[in-house]
Amino acid sequence: MDPARNLETRISAVEQLLAAQAAQVPLPASPPRVTAPPIAMPERYDGDPDQCRGFLMQVGFYVEEHPEMFSNPGAEVRFTVSLLTGRAREWTTVSPLSHSHQSLNSLYPSVMRGSMYKQPEPDRRFQ
Predict the structure, then answer these.
(1) Residue 108 CA to chain centroid, in angstroms?
(2) What are the sequence ranges of the domains in the chain?
(3) Do the beta carbons of residue 68 and residue 41 sit within 8 Å?
(4) What distance lies between CA 63 and its chain's CA centroid?
């Protein structure tokens, strides 16, 4: 037999043997998909200064967990304002910032970072 032909026959036999063995080896199971626990809808905020940081933290977590809901400009602002009640909601109607969506949108990142948060002075109009 021709040496080249003999080599081709042996290579073919080895390939068939490897293919047969590979077919018998089970594929490793894919690792279980790890999903983060769901983030609850933030509780409504009534303007209590002691609860402000916690409220902003909850809103921030919720927004991070659901980026598809907040892709439009101003969506985070509208969402946050929709969670306000009582004197906090009243603030949005009397604040000069609330009359300009652009102002609210530009202010929002600073509020969420907490860099603008200071313990507010009591607002006599709402006491």
Answers:
(1) 17
(2) 49-119
(3) no
(4) 5
pLDDT in tens, the chain (127 residues): 688 788 888 888 888 888 888 778 787 787 877 777 888 999 999 999 999 999 999 999 999 999 999 998 888 988 998 999 998 888 877 766 555 656 666 666 666 665 444 445 555 555 5
CA–CA gap between residue 105 and residue 55 (Å, rounded): 18
Q: pTM to 2 decimals?
A: 0.55
**CA 113, CA 80: separation in Å to the nearest integer?**
14
**What ranges in 1-127 are assigned the alpha helix state H?**
3-24, 52-65, 75-82, 86-94, 101-113
Residue with tokens 């293919």: 19
Residue 106: other Cβ atoms inside 10 A: 12
Angle between helices 75-82 and 101-113 (to 10 degrees): 80
Q: How many CA atoms lie within 13 A of 79 on its CB side?
A: 24
DSSP state of 49: G
